[in-house]
Design a protein that fits this description.
It contains ten helices and no strands. With 234 residues, it is mainly alpha-helical.
């Protein structure tokens, strides 16, 4: 009788850990396959609120990640469009102007009737404007900025952003005119009078109100005199 009780007690001791292991295995299996687990992903509203919070704090890197998550996870959410715009703004604030320009262009392509389009075009211009080089450097960014600001004024002439663009346009034209004058004078000093004359004439024809008109006329006259002298000597 005692022997039976000993055997029964021993069996119970062995059985208990085995049952416990089975329970733990089952629970871990459920967790692995997703049963009984709540989805902890943030909602669109939560991601937007977090993104805007980081944006206001100036943590634009974190804002970019949050707005990108909202776009990727909830592309059909009513907040996805706002996230696209704030993503572009965050890249702009990080001075990643090339990436920001692409984001603004994509926004305009996807939402051409959105009320923010005047702002989006203005920001496209600013992405180029803030990369303008000095007058002795390549002026591609200046030309691109001018192109976007003028496009904004054509499409939305009465919009406040078109009025803001006016000052930027004057700066772009001034830079382009000064660049032409700089290059023209360089050619003149180097004795390349034909090339110099072309630059000065281009400046007069395209930027007559930029401020170099009178001085440019003087250089045009000098170039023609030098060319006449060369012709007489040949």
């Amino acid at each position: 009788m005692l022997e039976g009780r000993v055997k029964y007690s021993l069996a119970e001791r062995v059985k208990a850990p085995v049952v416990l292991l089975c329970v733990l295995f089952f629970m871990s299996g459920c967790s692995y396959f997703g049963f009984g687990r709540k989805d902890r992903q943030d909602s669109p509203e939560q991601l937007m609120n977090k993104g805007m919070s980081e944006f206001r704090k100036g943590d634009y890197k974190e804002a970019v990640e949050l707005f990108q998550k909202l776009k990727d996870r909830y592309p059909y959410s009513k907040l996805a469009v706002h996230a696209e715009l704030k993503l572009a703004d965050s890249l702009f604030k990080r001075k990643e102007f090339e990436e920001a320009a692409e984001a603004y262009i994509e926004f305009e392509r996807l939402h051409p009737r959105n009320e923010a389009i005047p702002y989006v075009i203005y920001q496209q211009g600013m992405c180029h404007f803030l990369r303008m080089g000095k007058i002795d450097r390549d002026q591609t960014s200046t030309k691109n900025a001018l192109k976007e600001f003028e496009r904004l004024q054509r499409k939305f002439p009465d919009d406040p952003f078109s009025m803001m663009a006016e000052r930027r346009i004057r700066k772009c034209i001034s830079n382009l005119a000064e660049h032409e004058f700089y290059v023209g004078r360089f050619y003149y000093k180097s004795g390349h009078y034909v090339a110099a004359l072309k630059r000065f004439e281009y400046l007069i024809n395209h930027y007559p109100d930029a401020g170099q008109y009178e001085e440019t006329l003087v250089y045009i006259s000098k170039c023609k005199e030098k060319l006449a002298e060369q012709k007489a000597d040949s």
